[in-house]
Amino acid sequence: MTNAAYTKLDFNGSAVLFGVIIGIGFWIGLAALGIAIGMSTEVLRFEKDLPTGPGVIGAAIITVFILALTFFIAGFVASRAARQQNIFDSLIHSLGSWALMAILLVLFLFSATAFHEVKSVLSGISAPVIITDLKVLEAKATTTIKSTSEKKTLTPKDHKINKIFTLAWWIVFSALLIGLGGSLAGGFFGNRLKL
């Protein structure tokens, strides 16, 4: 025999949204702190406007840590704001905050990648050339349109930028997996912590 209190899911969408807003606020704040620390030290070396060296790995680890911490905070806040007694309902709220933040994070990186690709494609396009061959004595004119754009080959800088975007996608993937655990832990502690 089941108890009716445990079979009904009590979901509060505003608690999830509040958790996401707080999580994004922490994300922006911690990212600004990380940028300030990175800009004040010379951990990253730049060669031809692209970061290289061991600082890239450190920046990746710090980024994953910051995102996991913000997922934890979002799950904790969503769980506390929902005021759930049941641990399952609390974890559902933290999972909802993780899912919404994950969607926003992937959309952010997807738009950055798409913007770079569109910029790269548009940089290789040039206006077509219209050539008109007039033969006055024969009273004949022939007009042809020729494309001056050639198929663009990737430069070494393009390869490096592609590697950076690949690294960024792996960082986001890692942060999402670790952040899932962080968000669920935040929901668990948010439910268990009695303030």
Please supply descriptive tags for the structure shown above.
single chain, mainly alpha, 195 residues, two-stranded antiparallel sheet, 4 strands, 5 helices
Termini separation (Å)?
A: 33 Å
Structural class: mainly alpha
Rg over CA atoms: 26 Å
Proportion of residues in β-strands: 5-15%
For the biggest sheet, the summary is: 2 strands, antiparallel
The overall number of domains is 1
Helix content: 55-70%
Please mark out the parts with pLDDT under 50 across 5 or more consecutive residues, or reply none: none
Let me know the number of strands.
4
Mean pLDDT: 75
Biggest sheet strand line-up: 1-2
Count up the helices: 5
H/E element order: HHEEHHEEH
- Shape summary: elongated
What does this structure look like?
- With 195 residues, the protein is mainly α.
- The protein has one domain (4-192).
- Helix content is 69%, strand content 10%.
- It has helices at 4-7, 13-40, 55-82, 87-123, 156-192; strands spanning 45-47, 50-52, 129-135, 140-146.
- It has a two-stranded antiparallel sheet with strand order 1-2. It has a two-stranded antiparallel ribbon with strand order 3-4.
- A hairpin with a 2-residue loop joins β1 (45-47) and β2.
- α4 packs antiparallel against α5 (156-192).
- The longest helix has 37 residues, at 87-123.
- The two termini are 33 Å apart.
